[in-house]
Recover the amino acids of this structure.
């Protein structure tokens, strides 16, 4: 599928849940355009970070004004992310859910690494 096509892509079953069971790149019809997919993911994550969205909150508990600004900015940066193609911004929301989850997991891993280092008496980097 061409990245200029505006074909409707329905949200996959369970897209809004924390434990999604689908391949986002395939669901976004970008399995043959890894470069565009990675650019979209990186940019949406960066937009969230710059906007100050709270990684400790899930997507549904974010400041709605800031979340809307992040989603609007993503669509402005990537014409592929039209609401006609991805109703309710489901693709960007799925990217943000994964980003928040991954960032929270990294915090927990770092916390346990530091706790382990302290309990061993070694220095914490």
């Amino acid at each position: 599928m061409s990245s200029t096509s505006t074909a409707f892509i329905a949200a996959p079953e369970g897209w809004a849940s924390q434990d999604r069971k689908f391949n986002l790149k395939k669901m976004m019809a970008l399995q043959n355009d890894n470069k565009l997919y990675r650019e979209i993911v990186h940019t949406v994550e960066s937009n969230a970070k710059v906007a100050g969205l709270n990684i400790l909150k899930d997507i549904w508990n974010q400041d709605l004004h800031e979340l809307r600004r992040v989603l609007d900015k993503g669509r402005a940066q990537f014409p592929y992310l039209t609401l006609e193609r991805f109703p309710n911004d489901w693709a960007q929301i799925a990217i943000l859910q994964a980003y928040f989850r991954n960032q929270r997991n990294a915090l927990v891993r770092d916390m346990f690494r530091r706790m382990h280092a302290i309990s061993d008496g070694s220095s914490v980097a």
Notes: DSSP finds four helices and no strands in the chain. The radius of gyration is 17 Å.
